[in-house]
Amino acid sequence: MGRRDDLTRRQDRLLWPDQLAVHDDTLVFRVENQVVAEWGVPLAALAEADPPVVFRLASSGTGWRPYLDRVSLAGLDMVLSEWLMAGDLRDLDTAALTELEKRFRPLPMPEYPLWAEADGPPTRWFAGDGVILRVDIGEWLWARGKTSRELAAVRQALPGDWLLTEEG
């Protein structure tokens, strides 16, 4: 997975083994692209089969906060999020969120905090025919499809000001 920059380094970077570092009793393995946030595994949990992941705002001086309860889920989140960054984005209002919840099924991924708004509403994942969608803090909607046709169907189902970033 580490050789797939499009899945591990588009927005936030999965660190190479020689870049791993320990900060405040936590092994840091991922860093936000402007070094604003870090994700890691507490050293006390390293012996667990699938340890929890924590995050922090690197420069804020705040402590580590729970992110996802298993590193395998954090890996899935990272790959899906990095893949999604090549998709489409729009602001999300209450009406569009209600429609999204009607038309698309939630993915079996736990809700978790968005690092940029850790105390805001959680990140949530949805899917439809050939598309994956992510809602961040109830305000932003990311979407990406296997093809441009499937992404166009999402735009039609949830009309609004989409910022098209995917060519297909």
Could you explain how this protein is built, in words?
The protein has 168 residues and is α+β, with helices and mostly antiparallel strands. The protein contains 4 helices and 11 strands. Strands 1, 2, 3, 4, 5 and 6 form a 6-stranded antiparallel beta sheet that branches.
Q: Largest sheet at a glance?
A: 6 strands, antiparallel
- First-to-last CA distance: 23 Å
- What is the overall shape? elongated
Order of helices and strands: HEEEEEEHEHEEEEH
Computed Rg: 17 Å
Unreliable stretches covering 5 or more consecutive residues = none
Question: How many beta-strand runs?
Answer: 11
* Count of separate DSSP helical elements: 4
What would you call the structural class? alpha+beta
Q: What portion of the residues fall into strands of 2 or more residues?
A: 25-35%
